[in-house]
Specification:
The chain is an alpha+beta fold. It has 6 helices and 11 strands. Strand 6 and strand 7 form a beta hairpin.
């Protein structure tokens, strides 16, 4: 999945975030619409919507008869519940690809890389029961990175923090050295729209799904997570700034609604 998104979004890496997000959103809206059509009972949905329209018409024709109006409202509620029941299976089918797509977009459009001269916080959270003050770990900065502060140990959070400074562009290595082993993680100092991993954990099924491609912390190292705090990315649409998530939802759903009327999907 990551390699596929690398392929389709490579043309948009050099400052074309809006175009890349729009492309993925349009493709997603189109595919999800046809997936919904294939996995739903379109005839049953059409009948339910026809009944709902009839109940609304009934309310308008007999608006002076409170008993008829109340009955129509109850019938509309029941019909809506029936429509939602028909939509459950298609929604469950669609949620899997949508989540996988959102994971890939989050890697590319949630954060921006650092620039030379920027400083960043590196947080290392140790496992429960590990003495933060007694566990002597350190970081080793590779090319393009300098340590900007000594270690700050916070026993109440089971955490040790450092501040680093970026001195050059590129993807640089930062190594956490512990008594039981080392782990090297990437630090992104680039304006290119590449996947940026801000948090690193031990290997697990959920990490594979929600943080694909990130280096894993070896089991023997008593560290729960390593986090690097990157600046957040936002999308300016001329009149409003939105996160990638809201931009994706609005564009994909809006395009899906347009196609819904064009292709007669209930």
């Amino acid at each position: 999945m990551t390699q596929f998104f690398n392929f389709i979004l490579t043309p948009f890496e050099n400052g074309h975030a809006h175009a890349g997000l729009i492309l993925v959103s349009i493709i997603t809206g189109t595919v999800m619409l046809f997936l919904f059509k294939l996995t739903s009972n379109q005839q049953a949905m059409k009948e339910v919507k026809t009944r709902i329209s009839a109940y609304f018409l009934e309310m308008r024709l007999y608006n002076e008869d409170i008993s008829v109006v109340m009955a129509s409202q109850r019938n509309i509620l029941k019909a809506n519940m029936g429509y939602m029941k028909l939509a459950v299976i298609p929604a469950l089918v669609m949620i899997v690809p949508v989540i996988l797509i959102m994971v890939q977009l989050n890697l590319r459009y949630a954060q921006v890389g650092f620039r030379p001269g920027d400083t960043a916080m590196v947080k290392v959270k140790v496992e429960e029961g590990v003495d933060v003050l007694g566990n002597r770990m350190t970081i080793k900065a590779g090319r393009g990175i300098e340590k900007a502060s000594p270690a700050v140990r916070i026993p109440s959070l089971n955490e040790t923090d450092w501040k680093i400074k970026l001195t050059d562009t590129g993807v640089h290595d930062l190594t956490l050295e512990t008594a039981t082993g080392d782990v090297t993680i990437p630090v992104y100092a680039t304006a290119r729209l590449v996947p940026i991993h801000g948090i690193f954990k031990k290997a697990s099924f959920w990490e594979t799904i929600f943080n694909p491609g990130a280096p894993r912390i070896p089991k023997e190292i008593p560290v729960e997570a390593i986090e690097i705090l990157y600046p957040e990315m936002s999308f300016n649409w001329g009149f409003i700034d939105l996160s990638w998530l809201w931009s994706f939802l609005v564009i994909s759903m809006g395009f899906g609604v347009v196609l819904k009327f064009l292709f007669g999907v209930e």
